[in-house]
Write a structure and sequence with these properties.
The protein has 14 helices and 19 strands. By secondary structure, the chain is α/β, with parallel strands linked by helices. It folds into four domains: 149 residues, Alpha-D-Glucose-1,6-Bisphosphate, Chain A, domain 3; 99 residues, 3-Layer(aba) Sandwich (Alpha-D-Glucose-1,6-Bisphosphate, Chain A, domain 3); 107 residues, Alpha-D-Glucose-1,6-Bisphosphate, Chain A, domain 3 (3-Layer(aba) Sandwich); 74 residues, 2-Layer Sandwich (TATA-Binding Protein), CATH 3.30.310. The chain has a seven-stranded mixed beta sheet, sandwiched between helices.
Length: 449
């Protein structure tokens, strides 16, 4: 469990030009991560991508200086989705991959995500070792003048990713006749996602493709999909696709502008791959937040849903350990390990489009494969301490579970970034679910005073 000074559940993240997302820390991260991954006497290289935030320029240059100072060559890709960086780290046989992004956060945040040479996000243990070097720069060996790294921009990185994404779509299918709205959140995929869809034959209506350094995720993208839904209805499109700022998550809309979340996407792809004999692990991996309706649907097919704690890195770890090839989160992080080592919004959308195209059905019929159970989430705020360890809270949780009587679930967990307890309940009886959540929040906040 991350308890690190710099790294959280998804790399380093914070307000741009404040601690820890300032130039000084980025320089230290480059020196420390570079030093950690320099092993052997070959010429070492790191690949760096970013989204469209203004602060990306500052972080990119500071990171580069750190890597160069320890003797690593730096390949700069510019704006490119997070999954593209993971893919290119492996493809270019780099020792390390870096994505500069705060994902779905507003422009004034930024972050640093690190990928190992296998394209997977670093483990907690590796991040802890890098943190030690950040705080103890005396243990970092700087390169001699003759061994300093070189930096260069790679001009064809976007084309490489577009071709990679297109190869994940079945060769015998095309998107001719499909009218697709794609919302790129003014983020990292603003060029590559519309291009890939168009090259596969679709009529593409692209929005969220005018980044200015400040408008990433601003009233657009997967966290604000209303604009995408409205555009689908306006243009009478067949489907809407909304990515987030670094394009590692996706939310869809059908031809009526009705949303399709990550649970439906995972269920649809699992159905398709199971029928084709491609599904590994006899099920999928999701988090504790995925709807019970998905679990019941899979059970009818003889498939399982294995749950992890919230965070796509934990989903990926479970997939790797237990041999699954589909996993993800309700929020739209979909990991298809046949193709990618991390969530990839475009590739997940292409797999859905493959099912829709092959079936000939409208998206509203093809993609809504189960009826979600009523699910209610509410936050309980506390000032200090550990309210979940208080006896009255424990008693209230036990009583709530007894009242559900096997016809629903409770998920109660502390936020990883704020003094909040997240209380979620779902079940067949919506009124009961809402009442239980409200009562539990009241108990937690009363005990937390």
């Amino acid at each position: 469990m991350p308890g690190n000074k710099y790294f959280g559940t998804d790399g380093i993240r914070g307000r741009a030009n404040g601690w820890p997302m300032n130039a000084e820390t980025a320089l230290k991260v480059g020196m420390a991560a570079g030093s950690f991954f320099i092993t052997g006497d070959h010429r070492h290289r790191v690949v760096i991508g970013k989204d469209t935030r203004l602060s990306g320029y500052m972080i990119e240059q500071a990171l580069s200086a750190g890597f160069l100072s320890v003797g690593m060559d730096v390949f700069l890709f510019g704006p490119l989705p997070t999954p593209a960086i993971a893919m290119l780290t492996r493809s270019l046989r780099a020792d390390l991959g870096v994505m500069i992004s705060a994902s779905h956060n507003p422009f004034d945040d930024n972050g640093i995500k690190l990928f190992g040479p296998d394209g997977y996000k670093l483990s907690d243990e590796r991040e802890a070792e890098i943190e030690k070097l950040i705080d103890n720069p005396a243990n970092i060996t700087l390169a001699e003048p003759v061994a300093l790294g070189r930096a260069k921009r790679i001009e064809d990185a976007q084309a490489r990713y577009i071709e990679f994404a297109k190869r994940t779509f079945p060769k015998d299918l095309r998107l001719e006749g499909m009218r697709i709205v794609i919302d790129c959140a003014n983020g990292a995929a603003y060029r590559v996602a519309p291009a890939a869809l168009w090259e596969l034959g679709a009529e593409v209506i692209a929005i969220g493709t005018d980044p200015n350094g400040f408008n990433i995720n601003e009233k657009c993208g997967s966290t604000a999909p209303q604009r995408m839904c409205e555009k689908v209805r306006e243009m009478r499109a067949d489907i809407g696709i909304a990515l987030d700022g670094d394009a590692d998550r996706v939310i869809l809309a059908d031809e009526h502008g009705e949303l399709i979340d990550g649970d439906q996407v995972m269920g649809l792809i699992a159905n398709s791959w199971a029928e084709a004999g491609r599904l590994k692990g006899r099920g999928i991996v999701a988090t504790v937040m995925s709807n019970l309706g998905l679990e019941r649907h899979l059970a009818k097919l003889g498939l399982t849903l294995e749950r992890t704690r919230v965070g796509d890195r934990y989903v990926v770890e479970h997939m790797r350990t237990h041999g699954f090839n589909i996993g993800g989160e309700q929020s739209g992080h979909i990991v298809l390990s046949d193709f990618s080592t991390t969530g990839d919004g475009l590739i997940a959308a292409l797999q859905v489009l493959a099912v829709v195209t092959a079936s000939g059905k409208p998206v509203s019929e093809a993609c809504k494969i189960f009826t979600p159970l009523p699910q209610v989430l509410q936050n309980a705020r506390f000032r200090s301490g550990k309210p979940l360890e208080q006896a009255p809270v424990k008693e209230a949780i036990a009583a709530a579970e007894a009242r559900l009587n096997g016809h629903g679930r409770l998920v109660i967990r502390p936020s990883g970034t704020e003094p909040l307890i997240r209380v979620m309940a779902e079940g067949d009886d919506e009124k009961l679910v809402r009442r239980l959540v409200s009562e539990l929040v009241d108990v937690i906040e009363h005990e937390a005073v």
